[in-house]
Amino acid sequence: MSSSRTRQRVAAVVALAIGAVLATAPPAHAAALTSVSWATSQPQPNAANVRYTWTFTTATTSPNDLAAVTMTVPVGTTSGVLSVADFYGIGAGSVALVGNVVTYTVALPAASIAAGTPILISIDGFINSGTPGDATSTVTTQDSVGNATIDSAASNTLTFSNSSTAVTVVVPRSTAFTSDTTGITMLMDPSVTALATQTRDVSLTVKTNAINGYTLQTRINQQLTTSGGTVLSAVAGTVGASVPAPAANSFGYTISSASRAAAVQGQLATGYAGYDHLAPANIAVYGGATNSDTYVLRNRAAVNHLQATGKYTGSITYTVLPSY
Hints:
about 0% helix; Immunoglobulin-like; signal; single chain; 2 domains; about 45% strand; WxL domain-containing protein; mainly beta; 21 strands; five-stranded mixed beta sheet
């Protein structure tokens, strides 16, 4: 799977006021890649339709870009039609085998790849060399300026033998995203203190094996609006500058997380922000896999007698973007 999956849940918000239903730097050379691993789906000599998988972590921030990765294979290795089975941490690309060097060429190289970035490249279609024995693979990253080497290192040792047994455990990319709430209704009355300001919580749970983590976003399709066009304004706060006590006649949210408090962005943990209808807002960012992260978004509406009566509606979309 070569693209990241996006899971979404939508919570309908119905807000009702006044008693109605308120619904070119020079290249840095040849540092040592870390965690270099090379695996094969079949270790028998002359085996066909074999998958080779390389994983490694960059040691140097690429000075220009990361345009290609070369990987050596045993002399005598050939191929049928090579195809990229999977990749992450690097852009989509094509693959070729010349001699005993496999080259993965990135179609659209990123401007730069940071040091410490985990990368996986998995390629189908190899025919193993007919010579038994041990082998390592030297992995080298290159930029597009003269194919200059960025980082390089050798992998673990693989043994190609007729007495070897290949063991492959395949774990697919997986992200689960759930919301406990599909709709919110608030019955507002500015004459009653308990009804003039109300909150409703929405719990979101993220589970993902994305090695680089995920970004949680939120967006509203419109500020809460009546059929006649009257608007219940968004809270004046933003992700980066929340407000602890929003003004009357406004609707907004805050966010908390017992499991991943440090992932909450900006000042959302200490105050309220208005939902953005122009662009998604990043409300939580985490840089690793997780078995279960839960976030609670507290939605708050407040009205006084200056807010016109009516049924105010909108739709909030929560999105999780995994990064493999």
